[in-house]
Amino acid sequence: MIDESMPSEHIPDGYVHGYTEREHARLVDQATTLTDLLHHDTRYPLGTSVLEAGCGVGAQTVTLARNSPGARFTCIDVSPRSLEAALARVRAGQIENVTFQQADILDLPFPEESFDHVFVCFVLEHLPLPRQALVSLRSRLKPGGTLTVIEGDHGSTFFHPDDADARRAIDCLVTLQARAGGDALIGRQVFPLLAQAELRDVEVSPRMVYVDSSRPEWVEGFTRNTFTAMVEGVREQALAAGLVDAATWARGIAGLQRAVGPDGVFCYTFFKGVGVR
Amino acid sequence: MIDESMPSEHIPDGYVHGYTEREHARLVDQATTLTDLLHHDTRYPLGTSVLEAGCGVGAQTVTLARNSPGARFTCIDVSPRSLEAALARVRAGQIENVTFQQADILDLPFPEESFDHVFVCFVLEHLPLPRQALVSLRSRLKPGGTLTVIEGDHGSTFFHPDDADARRAIDCLVTLQARAGGDALIGRQVFPLLAQAELRDVEVSPRMVYVDSSRPEWVEGFTRNTFTAMVEGVREQALAAGLVDAATWARGIAGLQRAVGPDGVFCYTFFKGVGVR
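Predict the joint structure of the above. Result:
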């Protein structure tokens, strides 16, 4: 659901070498951007090969590759058009440790045990068979390699002032995504999905975006320009599908907008899971 | 909502002196009990006076007083019966830095600027006038003193597998609490409440309890024996109030019980806020 609408912090060279568990914890506490919150603890060692499955237009690819400059990334997507956009983005960022390839997660053109690590972000939510996708990806991992999954969960959303119409507007997204074969409540399922795909030592951590008016950059960057914009973006679809009437929809959007006022609060949770083959 | 059903970790003597920001972050990451998650970053210095408002039966008092052995706590509650239980608990724990007093938060028997710090946990959710309570408590703080609030938020609950009847059972708690003059969605309001009561430098952090089957002690201690038990506890009230029928209620409880299965996941968020007079 996320593009690069949040400002990204510069990560100094050599940072990766000083990385420790304690540093990790400190960063969770101090995450200043969504990119920090989701990606700070993914660092792949020098010389490792990483498959990014479902890279889309490369929104995560740039962060991934910058954070692990010594790793080699193979980034796949089913859509040639998305891959073109991703390639342009990576070139614009002068990133050299990434190659792109058109491929389907359920029909991967790589032999078993090809990669040291696999990374999947905001992909499973769109797939009718997320568990099978993980099984397919796991088989391309070398034994001991990790599979990392990041997903949002629209059902984790709550806000103040609470508003039944705003909740209904969000429910429209969930319903539309289900009708398209996806699952907007997948974040909470990351643990069972990884476990069912026979990854071991699975660890999942929630990453809550908590926004109140003491954090104006998150009010703008996340609540307004990411989440509310995403909801507003499905208006026509929701009306056409008869999920809601125009008046309720308008009240719902107005309700979300109250959550960005001075007394407003907004909460949304992403989930990040890592399992080992 | 919480008593001491979660096991409490022993906190070694002298711990308070080694306390640092980094340690704080590490502890958030490693919280092994609900007490850790909520209380680890509340430590009052030697010689300070602290008012605990609404101590109830002393469930938090014991932790508070142990974590800050050099501070003096004055713990108040409106209920003499609760105070008796709290006194017994503190005596059983051989805690000596606590005194109890019967008092109403809106009619405090202390002069202005009496205390260095104020602490309120799981209290505002029960009050018809939470903002006024904070205004009253703020006035007893010395300038520069802190007011700390911890509250849960029943509307933050989500789980896998999702279940409409389980959500309905939880909604019954929210409705019953509202009818009793309280607000079970108060956690998300901690920031605006503190700001409206004219505390400054308000900082609120969410404390999510995330439970999957890799954390069996939380499955038992929180999802089953704390949260689900709390919901089950209002069955008669919910049925008597006509909020739900018995069959729906039974399905709702069964739904919550599925969230403690091997593929189940459960999420609940507490909010902790600190403001300065």
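The two ends of chain B are 27 Å apart (CA to CA).
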